[in-house]
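Students often ask what a 'structure token' actually looks like in practice. Rather than answer in the abstract, let us consider DNA polymerase IV, a protein of 367 residues. Its sequence is given first.
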Amino acid sequence: MDDHIEKRQYRKIIHIDMDSFYASVEQRDNPELLGKAIAVGGSPEGRGGVVATASYEARKYGVHSAMSSKQALKLCPHLIFVYPRFAAYKEVSRHIREIFHRYTDLIQPLSLDEAYLDVTDDKLGIGSAIDIAKEIKQAIKEELQLTASAGVSVNKFVAKIASDMNKPDGLTFIGPSKVEKFIEQLPVEKFYGVGKVTAAKMKLRGLHYGADLKRLSETELANLFGKSGLFFYKIVRGIDNRPVEPNQETKSVGAEDTFSYDLTELAEMNGELEKISQLVFNRIKLYHLSGRTVTVKVKFSDFKQITRSKSFAEGVTTFESIFDISKSLLAAIDFTDRRVRLLGISISNFENSSGNERDIYQPRLFP
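Now compare that with the structural description of the same chain:
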């Protein structure tokens, strides 16, 4: 009787994430930097700016992306700042994509150093997603002298988390029979969309792991976390049917930050806007984009959210313009008796944009 039961077809998804990408390229191209704590971006002596990415030697001291140069130097006084070379990173990324295309055309880039691959039906007929991930990692190592980490599973959510589990140069496979248990044991802060504030809110309610979220009904999760609650309900049961979507154009580029304490002073908010503006500028420069609309997002302590936008005849292309426009949009908002828990900036309405588009909008992260 069992012979007539159709075997369920699972997708084979790989998430590839380059290890400390910008910093690794710099160390590869300049042997004097090998083994040293370096930060790409920021500025020496803490004169403004934020870190785009840090080498693993610097990360041991707590230095990470989106950190101010001043804070990074406090943590690691011997930190070496390196000016970013976006053209070099894009060329390396182009080579990495060429390696991906040897195995599949279902590739969804998330940034220059990160992508999903659907290898359910791979070009070479290899069949094993694990073997394909091994070959990709080896090709990147041999052809580019860089390392990548890979996560392999049946959906995008699990594959992405798996790729981060054994960095650097890791490969983690979460098979279909282990997906639900894996998610049940996952700390809530590892879930997509769960930042420091949401994680704290969850823990106050005794929700520490996926298994805790799984005990709540769909209605309960929706009441607590809105649309994210509906996502949590499905994902803790291993349900993630999002396809790998290739050939997407960029619709918007943005960054945001949720603060550890609520902001009440405009000067303090402008200080945070400056950091976020730098991240957004780095992104549009990286992708050679010019957007005509700047949007500021504000989320208050009561979780109410507003946005303010301004559009221009020509594209916004400089850090100074992004920061100045964002400050003026913020200044027009009435903050009387209101406390701010999140600020965000995005650029959209790109020149020559059309068709199948995507957002590059992440909480203060940088490739």
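One point worth highlighting: The chain has 13 helices and 13 strands. Ask yourself how you might have guessed this from the sequence alone, and why that guess would often be unreliable.
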